[in-house]
Design goal:
single chain; about 140 residues; alpha+beta; eight-stranded mixed sheet; 4 helices; about 30% strand
Length: about 140
């Protein structure tokens, strides 16, 4: 089941009931060092019997929309793709001029490249991607 948490429209206690472990537990903090929740974050959380199997998010920022971490507990690419699609499609419905993100795996980078993103920069650990909407 996919549960969506939209900014200002959800109970923080319900959200952290599911997601608190990822913000607080040492093993996840090490694996997800840039995981944050802001007042402008939309979350997509995949649950099975109230257990989180994966999540994705995006933030509305001054630059545009930043797609956040897409994470799955069991490294399932099928679930990763489903969550990444949910975030991307929802974000694109806002008609942003600019969408950007960073990913760590080549397979994830390739997935975004196949969806009209361009590779802006690479570092040792990250692929930085962006997508600009053309003015009509």
């Amino acid at each position: 089941m996919l549960k969506v948490f939209k900014p200002n429209l959800y109970s923080k206690s319900e959200f952290y009931k599911y997601m608190g472990i990822f913000f607080g537990e040492k093993e996840y903090k090490k694996e997800l060092p840039y995981l944050i929740n802001t007042k402008d974050t939309t979350w997509f959380v995949h649950l099975k019997k109230d257990k989180v199997l994966g999540f994705s998010s995006y933030d509305i920022t001054n630059r545009g929309i930043e797609l956040g971490e897409t994470y799955t507990i069991d490294n399932s690419f099928e679930l990763w793709e489903s969550l990444a699609s949910a975030s991307l499609n929802d974000a694109l419905e806002l008609n942003p001029k600019f969408v950007y993100l960073a990913v760590t795996h080549k397979k994830e980078c390739s997935w975004y490249l196949s969806r009209d993103f361009e590779l802006a920069k690479t570092t040792t650990n990250y692929y930085f991607l962006e997508r600009r909407q053309l003015d009509e």
